Amino acid sequence: MAAEVLTQGGARVTIYDAMPSAGRKFLMAGRGGLNLTHSEPLPDFLARYREAMPHLRTAIEAFPPDALRDWSAALGQLTFVGSSGRVFPKAFKASPLLRAWLRRLDANGVQFAFRHRWAGWDEQGRLLFQTPNGPSIAAADATMLALGGASWPRLGSDGAWVDILAAKRIAISKLRPANSGFTVAWSEVFRDRFEGQPLKGVALTVGAHTVRGEAMITRSGIEGGAIYALSAELREAVLALGQARLMIALRPDLDAAALTTRLSGTRGKQSLANFLRKAAQLSPVGIGLMQEAAIAAGRPLAAFSPADLAQLINAIPVQLTGVAAIDRAISTAGGVTFNELDEHFMLRKLPGTFAAGEMVDWEAPTGGYLLQASFATGAAAGRGILRWLNL
User: Fold this and answer.
1) pLDDT band at residue 31, thresholds of 50, 70 and 90?
2) Other CB atoms within 10 A of residue 295 CB
């Protein structure tokens, strides 16, 4: 995005990429459908960035979701709004958009240098790169760093830049997993039976924060959209206390009284699981979660009264024991602190060097917010470089 802004402003641009081809993480983002942005009103949209919102507001207001949709359409990829308000290209994939984008960058004169891994600066302030053919040096009038966080390192964002910038006394908030799963000590029976099973239409709560949505049971824990929306609160609790308590409501639209009435009927010869499935419309994995909670409480689920069952259905405690590894997280929290950047995304201690995207200290839930802020900060840094170069 910075390269587009710069070439439109008359600058000559070379993009150095450590990988053999461009946009590998962009392609991964589109693996299940490229969620470019979100259609909700801009004030609500901006609130998703929480404490980073004041620092990102100007960039996103200058390149808001509607502008991103127009940009995609200009590349031949019209978009649509899904039922959840998320915005996708009609092709649903990242590859057609990326191919069109790279063709336009090429037509604008942008040069690409692949297999060039940035290694810092030499004594003259020139950029150092490691390449298959040995070290390489490049001089630049201005530089933008868009090196990502530390999730999915095989796609290029391995966080190796942290030590390079720290050596220049740039303050960096520690990189941490964001939009990640969490570990749970499931029983062997539950793990073997329900690995990969979804929890649909649930409400998840940690502290004062509640999110409606879906989650997925994994062999080592739990992940999914509703989990990602709470990942910041859950992560900080786990890091501070060594664990976090997640409450799961399986039937959040039914109160305890309604559920008690449903569960007060005669069970007859039905198994408890079958009775719960029919009376409360619970899924097998939901019933399994109730069994896990009963085991943890040291009390057989069959001994629960209808009122106790009703309470448990909408308040199943799940103890999270850890955060999934950062290399499997969707995104990264932490990075270059905003105090190190001026309003044009230039590093105050390194005039002429700019930083944008996920390597800056902000995080957001999935839903289009990650890509939108990456696009918007890239465009903002591009404008900042044009200003720096007096173009």
Assistant:
1) confident
2) 14
